[in-house]
Amino acid sequence: MKIHRLAGYIQNIYLVEYPTKLLLLDGCCRADVDTVYQFITEHLNRPMTDLKLIVVTHMHPDHAGGAYPLRKLSGAKIAASNAPGQWYQGLDGLLMHLTDMALAWWVAGRLGKKRQNLWYNRHLTPDYYLATDAQLPYFEEWQAIHSPGHTDRDICLYHSASESIYIADLLVKVKGELMPPFPIFYPRRYLNSLLMLKTLQPKKIMFAHSDEMNLAEINFATILDAVPETPMTHWRSVKAKARRALGFKRSSLRR
User: How many Cβ atoms from other residues are within 10 Å of residue 139's Cβ?
Assistant: First the structure.
């Protein structure tokens, strides 16, 4: 087994290579489809049909956006959490889907990337639904570990033989420091997911938005202190900013 890390549009892409098959640890962005295609067919000199499984760790644009196009190109199967329903369901879900793509463009701008088409289907119908601790189809040495909090359906992917784990957005790096991601819809579940990682004691941790680390490099005490007690979501953020702006305006009028 060899794990290749590719530079994606706004995140790392992890492609696991075996002699007869390939595993994509996350669904990446729609803008990353050509990157994955070229790496497999040109760098590895392998047919796209060697890609057997694409895991979608959660439904955000940089983790699910390329799943359907890559399945169409390769015939690979898609696996995702067995969380009920769709993450982006209803009118609120549609608005959140649009907001998340706008946030992805904002991140791209901060990274100096040109704006690219990130549109993808907000509803996912995977070929396999993964229960917690389930083995991945075709790749039994990999295990799906549910790690909700960021959303209700986040999963990490653990390779027990090498004691390596891909944690997607469980932690992100901002200004050189690891911290909880935005948003966090379920703070208590998120706290439990962090404790799971700490208890598991992996030797290598792979991030979507940071370089690889070992467990000793992570200051869990600081991170655990930063976990919010209430949900930290798009709408709460907008409301809080509106209240602050309104309060400032009223204060200025009183002067």
Answer: 20
